[in-house]
Write a structure and sequence with these properties.
Structural class of chain A: alpha/beta
Number of helices of chain A: 5
Distance between the termini of chain A: 23 Å
Helix content of chain B: 40-55%
Order of helices and strands of chain B: EEHHHEEEHEEHHHHEEEHHEHEEHEEHEE
Structural class of chain B: alpha+beta
Order of helices and strands of chain A: EHEHEHEHEH
Strand order of the largest sheet of chain A: 2-1-3-4-5
Helix content of chain A: 40-55%
Radius of gyration of chain B: 52 Å
Largest sheet of chain A: 5 strands, parallel
Largest interface: A-B, 22 and 24 residues
Mean pLDDT of chain A: 92
Oligomer: heterodimer
Number of strands of chain B: 17
Strand content of chain A: 15-25%
């Protein structure tokens, strides 16, 4: 069990719930599941997760890229985008948020775990 | 040279050259007179000219047709002198063959006629002015057709053609016309507003006519009506714009479809993963696995039906949800083989909802109808399922799925369930910011209310 804590930001219930089950199955602990960028900001502060899995299309006014940019201002939590958007336009836009990973949907559980572990490792090295 | 009697108009003498011209021998022409060497139809004119010459009123008779012996005709000018010979009056005529001149004149006339025909019928104005456009030397009648104003008005006020130019083009054209002072050719396009308000597009080209020193003296040019060409150009531009917009829309649509496909695949992958976890939690038996596959099948079907309905619409955005519910129930009937002992009822209105609500709501209703079909009627008596969809005040929509079956056991916490089906129902209703209530009196009556998404 890694015990690392993950915040899921995803507006589709089934996708969010299946990510949660996958992560818990891998030994991670899911701190919260939220569906909007605004709630992601609140939960990032409250939960202080080790990593955030972030969709780009979300409920509310703020998209996942904007939310990641806001979180980056006050937290050092690595963000991994998990999205069905794979066009150059979104990739370029997402780069601005300096994500620790960009996983296209539909994802494979193994890829998700590897991306999270790489993000955590990179964050740890940066902190050292 | 011909000498003819005034009284009898008979020839007294015809010289050999005239005889040759006429094709007669000297002996043949004797006894002939004026009446014999001209075409019949021209005799009145010829006699009139002869008489005037005899009276001394005119000396020269012009363009007199003369008939040869073989019937062919040529023209002459006849210079005459009245003579008195032995008390008898004669007219001496000296003939000058003007056939070549007549032919040249005829050719020139034909050429002028052709040019005039072109100038007057072509949809253009031929013009000639002085350099400062204070005097109009020539303007063709095309001006009246294009400008809708008389040629006379332009001769009187040569600059009035500028007054008719569209206000948005006038300043530019006036500035461009200054080039006439430099002696360079010019070309410009502008709009003309006719008196009836109709607008014509004109392409006007001008060329200098210089004097011997090379100084521009006049300008001549042609102003063509290019309205049709401009209209075609405008239509082409519009079509190009529409095509570009359409292409952009299709690109956006394609990206959206691509996104939807990938997202739906993720949902399906998630559903299968959650179902796998649920089977593992309840025990991997053949029956459980079989049920799990059946449930997965109905869930994917409920999503597929939304897309099927969606692609039958014009905007690919909204579907008639009651029609969708009927299709979905029919699919579940077939899947669970319940056609014989459960009757289905539908109530409500034709309300269209968007894909963001239709997919989660369809999945939720799929669970509720499936649950009713699977668990509500163990004894198969008087089994009824009613699905209703209607709008309430303040933009709220209400969806009900009720049955007259055995009802949900009080042991089941339906809002925090352990079963995947009810867990999905609660989660999906929350996803569309809806609320769900359950009335257990007389069976199961689930009521979902939500606010219609504003597109």
């Amino acid at each position: 069990m890694t015990g690392k804590r993950v915040l899921i930001v995803e507006d589709e219930f089934i996708i969010a719930e299946s990510i949660k089950e996958d992560l818990e199955g891998m030994g991670y602990s899911v701190t919260s599941v939220v569906s909007s960028g605004e709630l992601a900001l609140i939960k990032a502060s409250e939960d202080k997760p080790d990593v955030i899995i972030m969709d780009i299309t979300l409920k509310g006014e703020m998209d996942g890229i904007e939310a990641a940019l806001e979180i980056k201002k006050s937290h050092v939590i690595p963000v991994i985008f998990l999205t069905a958007h794979s066009s150059e336009h979104f990739l370029e836009k997402a780069k601005a948020a300096e994500p620790f990973g960009y996983l296209p949907k539909p994802y494979q559980a193994k890829e998700l775990r590897e991306t999270i572990e790489m993000a955590l490792c990179k964050r740890k090295m940066e902190n050292n | 040279m011909v000498l003819a009697s005034l009284e009898t108009k008979k020839f007294l003498m015809v010289n050999p050259i005239i005889c040759e011209w006429l094709g007669y021998k000297q002996e043949e022409i004797k006894g002939l007179g004026v009446m014999d060497i001209h075409p019949k139809e021209n005799l009145p004119y010829v006699i009139e000219q002869f008489t005037k010459q005899a009276r001394g009123e005119i000396k020269l008779a012009k363009d007199i047709p003369v008939k040869r012996m073989d019937g062919s005709v040529f023209f002459v000018d006849i210079n005459s002198t009245p003579l008195d010979i032995a008390g008898e009056k004669y007219l001496l005529g000296i003939f000058r063959d003007i056939t070549e001149r007549k032919q040249a004149e005829e050719k020139l006339r034909e050429s002028e006629n052709r040019l005039s025909l072109v100038v007057e019928t072509i949809n253009a104005v031929f013009w000639m002015t002085d350099v400062s456009i204070e005097s109009m030397h020539y303007v063709s009648s095309g001006y009246e057709r294009i400008w809708g104003r008389s040629v006379q008005s332009l001769y009187e006020n040569p600059r009035t053609f500028i007054d008719a130019i569209h206000p948005e083009d006038r300043k530019r054209v006036v500035a461009e016309l200054e080039i006439q002072k430099t002696g360079l050719p010019f070309e410009h396009e502008y709009r003309v507003v006719r008196p009836d308000g109709e607008i014509r597009w004109v392409r006007d080209r001008g060329f200098p006519i210089c004097d011997k020193t090379g100084k521009p003296e006049r300008y001549t040019g042609i102003a063509q009506d290019i309205t049709e060409r401009k209209q075609v150009e405008e239509k082409l531009q519009e079509a190009y714009k529409e095509l570009t917009v359409s292409l952009q829309e299709k690109e956006v649509l394609l990206r959206e479809v691509h996104h939807r496909v990938k997202n739906n695949l993720q949902v399906i992958s998630g559903l299968i993963g959650m179902q796998k976890n649920a089977v593992e939690a309840t025990g991997v038996t053949v029956e459980n696995v079989k049920d799990a596959f059946q449930d997965c099948q109905s869930r994917i079907e409920s999503m597929s039906l939304v897309h099927e309905r969606l692609y039958q619409t014009k905007d690919f955005a909204n579907i008639d949800f009651l029609v969708y519910l009927k299709d979905l129930a029919q699919e579940l009937y077939s899947l669970y083989k319940k056609e014989d002992h459960i009757s289905l009822h539908f109530e409500g209105e034709d309300i269209h909802i968007g894909i963001n609500e239709a997919i989660p709501l369809g999945l939720a209703v799929n669970e509720l109808i499936s649950n009713s079909m699977k668990y509500a009627f163990p004894d198969n008596n008087h089994s009824e399922i009613t699905v209703s969809f209607r709008s309430l005040p303040d933009g709220i929509l209400e969806l009900r799925v009720c049955d007259n079956g055995v009802g949900i056991s009080d042991d089941i916490d339906w809002q925090n369930p352990h079963t995947l089906g009810l867990k999905l129902v609660n989660g999906l209703v929350a996803q569309i910011d809806g609320e769900i209530t359950l009335n257990k009196s007389g069976g199961t009556d689930f009521v979902i209310t939500f606010r219609k998404e504003i597109p």
